[in-house]
Amino acid sequence: MNARQLICLAGLFAAIPAAYAQTSLPDTIKVPDGHKVSMETTGVGEITYECRDKANAAGQTEWVFVGPKAVLNDRSGKQVGTYFGPPATWQAKDGSKVTGTQLAVAPSSAGNLPYQLVKANPAEGKGAMTGVSYIQRVALKGGVAPSAECTAANKGKQEVVKYQADYIFWSQS
Question: How far apart are CA 3 and CA 7, in angstroms?
Answer without folding.
Answer: 6
